[in-house]
Amino acid sequence: MEGFVIYIVIFGTLVGAFGGAAVLIWFERRLLGLWQDRLGPNRVGPLGIGLALADIIKMFAKEDWVPPFADKFVFVFAPTTIIMAMLLGFAVVPYAPGLYISDLNIGLLFFLGMTSLAVYSVLLGGLASNNKYALLGGLRSAAQMVSYEVFMGLSLMGVVMLTGSFSLVDIVLWQEEHTWFVIPQFFGFVVFFIAGIAESHRLPFDLPEAEHELIAGFHTEYSGMKFGMFMVGEYMGVILISCIVATIFFGGWLGPAFLPPIIWFFLKTFFFICFFILLRAAIPRPRYDQLMSFGWKYMLPLTLVNLLITGAVALWV
Amino acid sequence: MGVIFKAIWSQLVTLAMVLRHTFTKTDTVQYPEVMPYLAPRYRGRIILTRDPDGEERCVACNLCAVVCPVDCIALQKTEDEDGRWYPEFFRINFSRCILCGMCEEACPTYAIQLTPDFEMCEYDRQNMVYEKEHLLISGQGKYPGYSFYNVAGKTIKDKDKGQALNEAEPVNVKSLLP
């Protein structure tokens, strides 16, 4: 990647991530409305899309209150972490041939590392708030994300074994040669997607927030733009996980030639974002112990078996 | 093992069922553009009606104020030179009113009636207090043709005892005739 194009891609990613997160706030509510036989917000502007703008203005205009009992530096620092981690995660996503910020040879590890960093945001936010609910939310999220992290990484190792590379571009090129990874690595896809939901703590795995039990979990004490950053970070996480799923398991930019590759990539990403919202509309939140036992008792063994079989196939076939 | 597959299947069915709602009709009524149908006997804003002659029907009997469960009605009786009773003032505090319709049921003269209108928001709470001039309408409301003084035995000017509709002549207690 040389010169001028990379700046355009960086700028586009930045605008796309923030703009996408803002639009997603509106889009999610419309889609939830559709699936709950309601209309959702439809008053501000055409189809209510002005609501995204109104929400942003509201976020900035609200009183930004730091509780006097909080650990001030960490309290302010925590919400920035999630944004930074998520934005850095976008650095390795290939949008189209030759259209990516960086083709790291450890791209996949970099992505996993960045999503793991996001746990600090939630954990520090919960700790620094000095509030019981926030602490419980932070604790839960730490345990949840750390345990789902384990097989999130392992579920991708099957892909890495077959490709022989951590680079996302190489993974897409392998899929161009053979077939989309969703077929040989179906269980890997299922496990990765479930772990991705837990990682971006979206419903049904939004136990760190769990507004019915923990008020708002780790961001109970947050207000104004600091809360907005958590929210934008969460939506960016949704977009990032969708991008990665589309790239790794559904061939990224690959698709019939009547549409340009980048459109294929965005269509696939959009599909998975919609699936995230469908999950939120349909599936109830499990209990905390159910979540943990589901992770350790079913997901982890499934991943290991998948890894074992993939390894055997890669070795002898 | 079977339990696990059943659980997975159940989740997938849930997803499919919710996805099917993409094609169902929304239940939402877009209110200010699409007004809901309100039956004529809907219990909304309270009015005071007039009889066919254009006089106030209310005779200030206070039954509505007594029956009102939230005590939102206040009125004072007075009398004109014809002998007709009418309220000197009639005040309904709509910030208290629960639109239960008991005043309408209690009213002996069909004066107080509820209408199918509920859009009575105000920015100032004081504006929710309606005086008689706000409550009185020039029509007869839900019971056209009814005039209390034409059917009641109360004496007013130009109408003595026994002259009301379907009213018998008063018995002359001083006469010996049967």
Q: What does this 3D model show about the protein?
A:
The complex is a heterodimer of chains A (317) and B (178). In chain A, helix 1 (3-35) crosses helix 2 and helix 7 (186-199) packs antiparallel against helix 9. The model of chain A has no long low-confidence stretch (mean pLDDT 85). Chain A has helices at 3-35, 50-61, 72-89, 107-128, 132-163, 168-177, 186-199, 211-214, 224-249, 261-282, 288-316. Chain A is mainly alpha-helical. Chain A has one domain. By secondary structure, chain B is of the alpha+beta class. Chain B has a domain at 46-143: Alpha-Beta Plaits (2-Layer Sandwich). Chain B is built from five helices and five strands; from the N terminus they run αβαββαββαα. In chain B, the strands form two sheets. In chain B, strands 2-3-5 form a three-stranded antiparallel beta sheet. In chain B, a hairpin with a 5-residue loop joins strand 2 and strand 3. The longest helix of chain B is centred in the N-terminal third of the chain and has 19 residues, at 2-20. Chain B is elongated and about 105 Å long. The termini of chain B are far apart. The A-B interface holds A 33-39, 278-279, 281-283, 298 and B 4, 11, 14-15, 17-19, 21-22, 24-28, 30.
Core attributes:
heterodimer; A: mainly alpha; 11 helices; globular; B: 178 residues; alpha+beta; Alpha-Beta Plaits; 3-stranded antiparallel beta sheet; 21% helix
Top CATH class of one domain in chain B? Alpha Beta
Count of separate structural domains of chain A: 1
Distance between the termini of chain B: 101 Å
User: Percentage of helical residues of chain A?
Assistant: over 70%
> How many helical elements of chain A?
11
Give the helix/strand class of chain A. mainly alpha
Per DSSP, what share of the residues of chain B sits in E-state strands of 2 or more residues? 5-15%
Q: Outline the biggest β-sheet of chain A.
A: none
Number of strands of chain A: 0
Q: Shape of chain A from CA axes?
A: globular
Gyration radius of chain A, rounded: 20 Å
Task: Report the β-strand fraction of chain A as a percent range.
Answer: under 5%
Poorly predicted parts of chain B = none
Order of helices and strands of chain B: HEHEEHEEHH
Low-pLDDT sequence parts of chain A: none
